[in-house]
Amino acid sequence: MCEGCIPMPAVVIVGAQWGDEGKGKATDILGSRVDYVVKFNGGNNAGHTVVIGDQKYALHLLPSGILSPGCVPVIGNGVVVDLKVLFEEIDGLNERGIDTSKLVISANAHVIADYNRTMDKVAERFLGSRKIGTTGRGIGPTYADKMNRLGIRVQDLFDEKILRQKVEGALELKNQILTKIYNRRAVEVDEIVEELLSYVDRLRPMVADTPLLLHEALAADKTVLLEAGQATLLDVDHGTYPFVTSSSATTGGACTGSGIAPTEITRVIGIVKAYATRVGEGPFPTELFDDDGERLRKNGAEFGTTTGRPRRCGWYDAPIARYAARINGVTDFVLTKLDVLTGWDRIPVCVAYDVDGERVDEMPMTQTGFHHAKPVYEYFEGWHEDISAARTFEDLPQAAQTYVLELEKISGARISTIGVGPDREQSIERFDLL
Does a structural domain hold residue 345? Predict the structure, then answer.
């Protein structure tokens, strides 16, 4: 980089609710304007849906930047990788004419072994009514192995002796649990090693020292976009614990999951729906159990990209948005699915909570407090005009403009982009995101 030049930024995109906010579309919109897109956490337990023209792409493990021809997609060290899913997803995109040859995978990313999936499923069944609501894809057990120093990393597959030692070490305890507690058969070391080694030849050319790669990219004046899986309220530290994912889905996780220093990050984009949804168990103050909830689900096609599970639906929650803005240092919000609210005469927005008779304006400190929180609503005028063709803020009906501006006032950051439909082009840009 030339002396005196200002390096290009690292920009973070995070979900500001419970996931499924439309991060994939936001990343895709920016994909043509950035050089690298990095997935820094999670695995194939969350999906992004991207619509380009009449084509819909459901991504589970791959970064959304895989759909932008000039962009280098990177799977960072903070991701856990199911290699079978990875190559199935790559093959599926290749069959549809998408070039995946630029994909880079961190040598330090952890690999999901078959026994991790088994442990995930049997543990959920064992928990019964206390289940977390996992996808059963082995994500949590793989992260647990990582923290217990029993994990298998991508680089381990290139040394069969080390790989075998690590699998033996992991199964020494897991087989005791599977056979003596869950009454399942023991897992054979050879079958795990054989499966993982079967991916080596195809995997090897994709693997790199990604923290070094990204450092050099930033030093060369490239723009790096860091894309979170899951969302703030599912973050293992800052989410609605224990009903959370097993990784860091916030801006802090972008640094640890990619190897990029905090000082390199210049903008944080929070993605928030014009209403709220959640998949899985856990508290959800604005959740609707009536016709309005079913209407949101139907109009918004609120079914999980990865699991197909119907999403729980509710009204916009401003305390959650403010919380996400604080935790992540959000500089800009992207408000998605505004078009889904078309047709309501009035639209409720949660501005605070009633917790045991006391008004609370921010997220309660304790799990118990949040579990008992009841929404305090303000109501805004709705609209009935079709807004899917709007391309400027002024194209929106006055009531829709007012709704956006009021959300902006109470959410902790400016709303820079508004989604008015699923397609890449169905967006309104109020302020430049880069």
Answer: yes
Reported as type and span, the H/E element at residue 336 is strand 332-336
Q: Look up tokens 């993605």; give the residue.
A: 271
What CATH number is associated with residue 151? 1.10.300.10
Q: Do 250 and 261 belong to one domain?
A: yes
What is the largest distance, in Å, between two alpha-carbon atoms of the chain?
Answer: 67
Closest residue by Cα to residue 133 from 124, 142, 141: 124
pLDDT-based confidence at residue 2 (cuts at 50, 70, 90): very low
The verdict on 389 and 266 lying in the same domain is yes
Whether 291 is catalytic: no
Residue 20: active-site member: yes
Catalytic residue, chosen from 35, 48, 82, 317, is: 48
* Tens digits of residue pLDDT in 308-332: 789 999 999 999 999 999 999 999 9
Instruction: Give the integer Cα–Cα distance in Å for 48 and 73.
Output: 14
Q: What is the pLDDT of residues 145-162, one digit of tens each?
A: 999 999 999 999 999 999
Q: What is the pTM of this model?
A: 0.90
Closest to 134 measured CA to CA, from 114, 118, 154: 118
Q: Do 224 and 372 sit in the same domain of this protein?
A: yes
